Amino acid sequence: MPVINRIADFADDMTAWRRHLHAHPELRFACHDTATFVVEKLREFGVDEVHEGIATSGVVALIEGSGPGPTIGLRADMDALPMEEVTGLDYASTMPGKMHACGHDGHTTMLLGAARYLAETRNFAGRVALIFQPAEENGGGAGVMVEEGVLERFDIQEIYALHNAPGTPVGAFYTTPGPIMAAVDTFDIHIKGRGGHGAMPHETADPIVAAVGIVNAIQTIVSRNNYAADDLVVSVTQIHTGSADNIVHELAYINGTVRTFDRAVQGMVMARLEAIVQGQAAAYGGEADLTYEVGYPATVNDPGRTAFAAEVAREVSADVVDDAGPEMGAEDFAYMLEKRPGAYLFVGNGETAGLHHPAYDFDDTAAPAGASFFARLVERALPVG
Question: pTM for this structure?
Fold first, then answer.
């Protein structure tokens, strides 16, 4: 159950591609240089069609098999994160304030590796659409590609994606049927009180006290309003107010994130947040506004495609878990899985720093396993003869 020999043969090339991408990270929809690099490689490999400028900087390449058949989509995200890298690696980011801290350089490399193999061998009947997507981290690039009609335009029938997993053995795979990643929402709370002198708080309506009341009450949403068997995270992640030790500031700001799988739970959270914000602000003599932004939906794997993908993974690795359960992270591949059946899997990245950590790096030895998975998936799903 090994990596495909031909892919192993060009593993060093994949490492070079990945390290080039790592050194040149780009953000959100502005993945233009990354897309140029991807297109250059795809044309070298001899793919049949290359379509650029989708969702601003996204790329879709088509490879025709040796006979007619349906089209399978394989997706990789290309964008990086707005943070400083501290790895000290020879190929560390050359772009200040930008870093591939989530492994999208590795994801792009794995799909390029599969593209090279599939363009060489064409041992499948049908067509594969290779989707290189911008703006996963922020901007919902997958949703934009869906809105622009990428699935219909290229007649994609089912779709698959991989994400690396630090803390999991290199080349191992895990997934789960049904929900695998949570929906992600954001809330912002702006509190207005009445400012004044810190020595005369009785003349003020202190927004700090109101903010503390709101934050404390928010903790009861999970513990007292939610059914214990329903997965839910509500985290307050920012509080900002004040300017000096002798001033009661007039304003305060609270920000946080909500993670859910069930729309009814999501609706309950929205209602409870509004009631808490208004009630607590009024109780302390102030007023407050809640802005609740609905973000990426839950990522939901098709059970049948997930079982099939796990079977394929076992042809590449002896370490495959197909019932890992859901995680509370979020992923905009959800938009594609809302429209087409498919599966999202994780591939092990070894004992590295965690995702979104400034010391993170993708393990290049994982790339051949991911590329082999993609290639075998196409060959198994679209058999010749």
Answer: 0.92
Joined together, the tokens standing for residue 63 give: 């490879």
Which parts of 65-182 are beta strand (E)?
A: 67-77, 125-133, 156-165, 173-174, 178-181
Token digits of residue 298: 């839950």
Report the 10 Å Cβ neighbour count for 383: 14
pLDDT averaged over 10-residue windows placed end to end, the chain, 385 residues: 89 98 98 98 98 98 97 98 97 98 98 98 97 96 98 98 97 97 97 95 95 98 96 97 95 98 96 98 97 96 98 96 95 97 98 96 97 98 92
The answer to whether residues 366 and 293 touch, using CB atoms and an 8 Å cutoff, is no
Predicted local confidence at residue 385, as pLDDT:
79
* Local structure of residue 333 (DSSP, 8 states): T
Is residue 163 a contact partner of residue 331, using CB atoms and an 8 Å limit?
Answer: yes
Taking a C-beta distance cutoff of 8 angstroms, is the pair 352, 80 a contact? Answer: no
CB 85 within 8 A of CB 23: no
CB neighbour list of residue 310: distance below 8 Å, 6 or more residues apart = 173, 175, 320, 322, 345
Q: Hey, what domains does the chain have and what are their CATH numbers?
A: 5-180+299-381 (3.40.630.10), 183-294 (3.30.70.360)
374: part of which helix (H) or strand (E)?
Answer: helix 367-381
Contact 211, 190 (CB under 8 A): no
Q: 334 by DSSP, 3-state: which?
A: helix
Residue 197 near residue 246 (C-beta atoms within 8 A): yes
Residue that is written with structure tokens 């999202």 in the block: 344
Instruction: Specify the amino acid at residue 100.
Output: H
Question: What's the CA gap between 101 and 105, in Å, rounded?
Answer: 9
Tokens read off for 20? 């080039």
* DSSP-assigned states of every residue in 7-38: HHHTHHHHHHHHHHHHHS---TT--HHHHHHH
- Pairing between strand 173-174 and 196-197? unpaired
Give the residue carrying structure tokens 């009341």: 213
Cβ within 8 Å of residue 27, ≥6 positions away? 79, 80, 81, 82, 98, 137, 138
